[in-house]
């Protein structure tokens, strides 16, 4: 099939490459000329394992190409996917200007007699489909099209496998013609397809992300109870996670959730519910617990170091999770900013996130960036593990200790074993776990 993706970021680019991989002809549109130039030159603007090979292979096979022109994308494509940002506004509600603009651009590009399916893949408030439909109609009375909602569930860091082998495909359509075309798009993926009405599909995405955030806040709230009672949150998580009704996923206590999706989607869901007249107090508590978790960790650091001002602190991890260069709304970054605000001297290292953290000015210039995890430790009075990259497991902990001025480790992801750390002579703090006896 001939497909168009508008917005070639973390979702659009990976989706486009995976659609091409299964044999579709895909044109990815982006209004960022620099990004399109890079992609045309064979450079990949984001880090996602396996993406580079996938893009190169499909560009060479002439199944994947890039343009800045929405008209060119819409002209030859049966199905047009919208994958542009839906950032939060200061009040938490979703900024819909990107989606509305793309709807108008699609309207301008649609030609009479050429039926198209316009698919919303961005994460949007319920009822956005109706708005997109009405907008396109208002700007192009002749257009023949249907709107479909097809939320995306990929996880950054494993977006390629998530898209190639999804747990399920969800889409909401109000016409058989559109639903049939969508089934043809996804048929090669051999995944369960769940078809709903448009509003339900839109709600499924916010409900899914909110539930996962809730699970994280639940275990983080438990971690505080574990610390107060001497219990071990990992054992508690294992014990409850063995119950199939609960499951072990998303029950890892840590610094709280961050990233470009959960914080904004939880905020958006709260705002959407409010607007619908059904305030979602439960999710407000989820947010409160999340913020408190970082504050509790900082308190632990203040307890351990007594004073943060003028302390040299190494931070391992900037990305909001491992295997991605995405540093948007990363808790690691929030933590660093807090440490700097309190007068600490921070040196950070991240395998993939340093360039974007600097480019997007998310950390103060005073934060030094090291070339390796060990280099970040020179003279450090404490190490904070903020993102659980596998690379950190290969670092020789004896070397770590030698490099540090004082051997304090604050493990925000329960990455190290408390017993090992004690045996090696570290003063070791983690989340919700008692010190090794
Ligand atoms: P992104 O910022 O990485 O990419 C969006 C792209 O859209 C950018 O390259 C931007 O230049 C482009 N763009 C903006 N306006 C445009 C226009 N008018 N025409 C053409 N291109 C335009 O964003 P993302 O992380 O890919 O997220 C996109 C959407 O998908 C959001 O709604 C997000 O919530 C949702 N989502 C994201 C993830 C994720 O893990 N990142 C997962 C599921 C859903």
CATH topology of the largest domain: Rossmann fold
Q: Could you report the average pLDDT, rounded to the nearest whole number?
A: 97
CATH architecture of the largest domain: 3-Layer(aba) Sandwich
Give the overall shape, derived from the CA principal axes.
Answer: globular
The domain count comes to 2
The ligands bound in this entry are:
nicotinamide-adenine-dinucleotide
- Please report the distance between the alpha carbons of the first and last residues: 62 Å
Strand-pairing-aware structural class: alpha/beta
- What is the helix content? 40-55%
Strand arrangement, major sheet: 3-2-1-4-5-6-7-8
Uncertain segments of ≥5 residues (pLDDT<50)? none
- The CATH C-level name of the largest domain is Alpha Beta
Polypeptide structure, described:
It is a single chain. By secondary structure, the protein is α/β, with parallel strands linked by helices. It has two domains: 2-196, Rossmann fold (3-Layer(aba) Sandwich), CATH 3.40.50; 231-429, Rossmann fold. 43% of the residues lie in helices and 14% in strands. The protein has 16 helices and 14 strands. It has helices spanning 10-21, 33-40, 51-60, 70-75, 97-109, 128-139, 159-164, 176-186, 198-229, 233-241, 262-275, 281-305, 331-341, 354-359, 397-403, 418-423; strands spanning 2-6, 25-29, 64-67, 79-82, 116-120, 145-149, 169-173, 193-196, 312-316, 345-349, 368-369, 382-385, 408-411, 427-429. It has an eight-stranded mixed β-sheet, with helices on both faces. A six-stranded parallel β-sheet has the order 11-10-9-12-13-14. Strand 1 (2-6), helix 1 and strand 2 form a beta-alpha-beta unit. Helix 1 (10-21) crosses helix 3 (51-60), helix 5 packs parallel to helix 6 (128-139) and helix 9 packs parallel to helix 12 (281-305). The radius of gyration is 23 Å and the shape is globular. The termini are far apart. 46% of the residues are buried. The model has no long low-confidence stretch (mean pLDDT 97). Nicotinamide-adenine-dinucleotide binds next to helix 1 and helix 5.
């Amino acid at each position: 099939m001939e497909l168009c993706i508008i917005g070639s970021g973390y979702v659009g680019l990976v989706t486009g490459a995976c659609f091409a991989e299964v044999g579709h002809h895909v044109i990815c549109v982006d209004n960022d000329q620099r990004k399109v130039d890079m992609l045309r030159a064979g450079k990949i603007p984001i880090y996602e394992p396996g993406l580079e090979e996938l893009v190169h292979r499909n560009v060479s096979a002439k199944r994947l190409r890039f343009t800045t022109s929405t008209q060119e994308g819409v002209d030859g494509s049966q199905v047009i996917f919208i994958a542009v940002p839906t950032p939060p506004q200061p009040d938490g509600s979703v900024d819909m200007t990107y989606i509305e603009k793309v709807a108008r651009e699609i309207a301008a590009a649609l030609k009479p007699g050429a039926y198209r399916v316009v698919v919303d893949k961005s994460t949007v408030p319920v009822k956005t489909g109706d708005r997109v439909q009405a907008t396109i109609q208002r700007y192009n009375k002749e257009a023949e099209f249907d709107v479909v909602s097809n939320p995306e569930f990929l996880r950054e860091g494993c977006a390629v496998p998530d898209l190639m082998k999804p747990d399920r495909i969800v889409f909401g359509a109000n016409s058989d013609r559109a639903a049939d075309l969508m089934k043809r798009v996804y048929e090669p993926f051999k995944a369960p397809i769940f078809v709903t009405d448009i509003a339900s599909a839109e709600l499924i995405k916010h409900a899914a992300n909110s539930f996962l955030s809730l699970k994280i806040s639940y275990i983080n709230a438990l971690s505080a109870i574990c610390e107060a009672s001497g219990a071990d949150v990992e054992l508690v998580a294992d014990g409850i996670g063995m119950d199939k009704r609960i499951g072990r996923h998303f029950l890892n206590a840590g610094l709280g959730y961050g990233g470009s999706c959960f914080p904004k989607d939880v905020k958006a869901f709260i705002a959407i519910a409010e607007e619908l007249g059904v305030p979602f107090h439960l999710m407000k508590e989820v947010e409160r617990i999340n913020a408190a978790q970082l504050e509790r960790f900082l308190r632990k650091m203040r307890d351990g170091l007594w004073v943060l001002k003028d302390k040299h602190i190494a931070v391992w991890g900037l990305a909001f999770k491992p295997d991605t260069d995405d540093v948007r709304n990363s808790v690691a970054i929030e933590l660093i900013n807090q440490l700097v605000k309190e007068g600490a001297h921070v040196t950070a290292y991240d395998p993939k996130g340093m360039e974007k953290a600097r480019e997007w000015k998310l950390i103060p210039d005073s934060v030094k960036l090291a070339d390796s995890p060990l280099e970040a430790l020179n003279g450090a009075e404490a190490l904070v593990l903020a993102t659980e990259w596998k690379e950190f497991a290969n670092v020789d902990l004896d070397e770590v200790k030698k490099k540090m001025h004082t051997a304090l480790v604050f493990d925000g992801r329960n990455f190290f074993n408390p017993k090992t750390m004690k045996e090696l002579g570290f003063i070791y703090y983690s989340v919700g776990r008692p010190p090794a006896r």
